[in-house]
Amino acid sequence: MFDLPPRSVFEPPSYPNVWFYVRDTLVASHVEAVNFVIGWLRDRCGIKNDFIGFKPPEASDTQARLHGLQPWREASNPMLNHAHDLHIRYYYIALRQQHHERVPAPMPAGGHYFRFAGSVHYEVEDEHPLHPDVHECPYCGRTGIYSGAEDLFAGVHEPLGLELLLYGTIRGNRVTGIDERPVAGLSALKETHTIEIHRLRPSRPDMNIADLSVVAIDHKTAPPRGRGA
């Protein structure tokens, strides 16, 4: 359904597991589409670049996180206790340079969309000495429905990050932030926009991920006729 670019466009370690499609009648340019989504996630969800030290970009153009989530304080070894980060890396400049940034929509509504990518995961907070993983953690570890995951990052951390980014939940449970308010997911965009979340099956060898989603954002009502019509 969605003809997504190859991983070679960016050369990240993992194929981006979330793609943002923004209707081109909502914004005037690809730059504005990127700023709209990243700005909404910052202002509405609190996902921002507040890393204290150097964080490897892994071929991304910028990155952000929401930290201090779901503190685990019940570990048998107190050294394992930790909170969590939702960490996302954004990829967009290479798309623009290689003319992959605007495409016709495969959805019934038609039109054209600006698009860019993200790689999101949920892990032990960056400041913890055991970052990025504690295998036995009931939140981010190889436990529960993820107990059989072969790869902790691709099979657990990335799917959990995608779930939190999209719906504000981890393992189906609502997550609260440091301010004790529920974390908003992208699904909350439906308050002001039409949003479609497409859960896809990674189908190519270069898609070295377990879960993949496309988030399409459009006008709340019928868009004005114009270049995207």
Protein described:
- The radius of gyration is 18 Å and the shape is globular.
- Helix content is 16%, strand content 27%.
- The strands form 2 sheets. Strands 1, 2, 3, 4, 5, 8 and 9 form a 7-stranded mixed beta sheet that branches. A two-stranded antiparallel ribbon has the order 6-7.
- It has helices spanning 30-45, 93-97, 152-167, and strands at 18-23, 62-72, 82-91, 102-104, 112-124, 169-170, 173-174, 194-200, 212-218.
- It has 229 residues and is α+β, with helices and mostly antiparallel strands.
- It starts with 17 loop residues before the first strand and ends in an 11-residue tail after the last strand.
- The protein has 3 helices and 9 strands.
- It has one domain (8-190).
What's the helix and strand layout?
Layout: E1 18-23, H1 30-45, E2 62-72, E3 82-91, H2 93-97, E4 102-104, E5 112-124, H3 152-167, E6 169-170, E7 173-174, E8 194-200, E9 212-218
Parallel strand pairs: 1-9
Antiparallel strand pairs: 1-5, 2-3, 3-5, 4-5, 6-7, 8-9
Task: Describe this structure in a few short sentences.
With 229 residues, this protein is α+β, with helices and mostly antiparallel strands. The protein has one domain (8-190). The chain has three helices and nine strands, in the order βαββαββαββββ.
